[in-house]
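ZP: hey, is the 6-O-phosphono-beta-D-galactopyranose complex queued? I don't see it on the tracker
AM: it wasn't, my bad. submitting now with these inputs:
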Amino acid sequence: GGAVAANQFEGGWNEGGKGISVIDVMTGGTHEKMREITNGIEADKYYPNHKASDFYHEYKSDIALMAEMGFKCFRTSIAWTRIFPSGDETEPNEEGLKFYDDMFDELLKYGIEPVITLSHFEMPYHLAKKYGGWVNRKVIDFFVNYAVTVMEKYKNKVKYWMTFNEINNLIDTDNPFNAWTGAGVLYEDNENIEQTMYQISHYQFVASARAVQRAKEINASMQVGCMLHFGPIYPSSCNPQDILAGIKAMDKRYFFSDVHVRGYYPTYTLKKWERSNIQLDITDEDLKDLKRGTVDYIGFSYYKSTIAEYDKIHDFIEVQNPLLKKSDWGWAIDPTGLRIILNEVYERYQKPMFIVENGFGAYDKLENGIINDDYRIDYLRNHISEMKKAIELDGVEVMGYTPWSAIDIVSASTGELAKRYGFIYVDLDDQAKGSGRRYRKASFEWYKRVISSNGEIL
Ligand code: BGP
């Protein structure tokens, strides 16, 4: 299939009763210029997610194009603010529920299985402003109310769910976008940022665990996954210190999947909290929830790999790989890294793996209605080949593959529509100017054959 996220795709940011989300106050940026988080909507600023690719109005024709490629599933998110515009209401917005009801019916009409992320960088702005976002334990209940409402509503249309998109972004506290898009939090300079990050993470772990338990009560056949960004972090040399640096660097990622999958905090984290004197609000009930609400599968995004080099002050620093080619945004192209991460994560947890993002962002060119994206075909062909080796040679259980992105959408990090990932080109530029017409790229026909041959014809 293919993947997108509501906030990067739908547009219709204030239609159908939808409330403002944290991404709706983020202006457009570029590879060089950071996006800005404004205080509310400022009249003279440009917000790319307001219109995005306008799927909100184009969904029937876009889904018909996905069906033409032969999609068996389509990963997207439900925009929390379409269902609970402010986030703290008790009753849902019926217009929002109807939009997804109609959209899921359109997918199922073609036999396309919806795969739904509950929170993908688009939580209600009101929860950030009034409650401080996920630093507030109350947000757990608001999230669970939202999750239960949609799981109940769509219990016979959606079987596969995920809770928090790339929850492990939170650990990189030096990028303010991670806490803002992932938790509605803007760190203050004078606070203990690391303590706040772990507290936010804890509340999201508890919220995820409660959602998993409620899912099973609603429909026992539901499968709920976690969602992380995964990629190998290689040691920069065969020096044992660098090897250890690589292992400790991976703990940044494994911390999140360990809690989601095993249901308790790993010892390396407890020791970290002890030596950093991190005191969290964790109740016995929370710990019981974590244990009872472990996930059914591991959803993850794979784009690139990185390198860790021993550093006596920070344990390790991440450096670029001189042996790998990079995308125009500097992301290392490493298909073997996908096979490596599939092996390492599967052997760690023995849970089914779902690659819910894998793709190549590029400046595609539309010339006379043609987009020749052979570079994207190469990237995907090589990654699918490595995925096949992981399945056929290494015995990894891979339950699905939904490349990012089914169709051109707004980039999360830069807000650019020009950073294109889709099999389908959308004729809009970074200021939402253009016909909005859809064009099949070269990769569209290629991927259609990949799907119809179930990966035999690459
Ligand atoms: C992941 C997100 C997606 C998507 C992707 C590509 O972080 O889960 O939302 O955006 O990365 O990144 P970008 O859009 O920044 O190029």
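AM: back. The chain is about 40% helix and 15% strand.
ZP: great, adding it to the tracker
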